[in-house]
Amino acid sequence: MTWSEESWSFVEPVYKEILKLPFLKGLMDGTLPKEKFFYFLKQDSIYLTHYGKVMCAIASKLENPEYRKIFLRFAGDSVVMEESLHEYYIKDIENKSLTEASPTCRLYTGIVSQTLISEPLEVIVASVFPCFIIYKKVGDYILANRYKKNNPYTKWINTYGGKEFDEFTRLDVKITDKLAAGASPEIRASMTEIYVLLTKMEWMFWDSAWRMEKWPV
Fold it and tell me: Global pTM?
């Protein structure tokens, strides 16, 4: 059994809770209030800036030249893909100025940054695993269960339930499992721990968008 297969049993309960979130239900049936979706896009833009830097940092640490190229591609293509989504929807936003990072966004990027500084490569790679696996599974689920007629979020749904993101995910699974196969049991356990933790952060990120989270002071 690969690490990704083995670790999914720990992550699946969180994933099932993610599917219950009102934000995702609103995406599926098209009833999500635009202001909540726009809030999500703005926070996601902040996260993506950080995400691209982390992907480049991972690439610099990888010895395998093929893996380096793949992670540099992640840093470029996946960010461009999401930015095109943002541009598609951002035209409808009256206030296009980027707000400050929410508490949840700050926490999420902070955990990834700390992992990048203090953990071995295998754990660092596992820290970005939810960005692929959870978004792909959520995208596929919404694609299969969406209300198709006049859903304003069809482009977002098609992106994460589409073939291009599926390719990104398969490549990331391949590399992460390969690294895990050569890691010690202790490192594999740490990989699973960060995978579960940051899957919980995915739940918090969508929940914070639904609540349009603000700093209390």
Answer: 0.92
pLDDT tens digits, 98-147: 578 999 999 999 999 999 999 999 999 999 999 999 999 998 999 888 88
Contacts of 109 (CB under 8 A, 6+ apart): 46, 47, 50, 101
Contact (Cβ atoms closer than 8 angstroms) between residue 172 and residue 129? yes
Most confident option among 8-17, 42-51, 90-99: 8-17
Q: Which domains does the chain have, with CATH numbers?
A: 3-92+100-211 (1.20.910.10)
Give the pLDDT band of residue 91 (cuts 50, 70, 90): low
Q: How far apart are CA 52 and CA 73, in angstroms?
A: 10
Least Cα distance to 50 among 121, 94, 108, 100 occurs for 108
If you write DSSP's letter for every residue of 179-190 in order, what string do you get? HHHTS-HHHHHH
Q: Any residues with CB less than 8 A from the CB of 83 and at least 6 apart, and which?
A: 45, 48
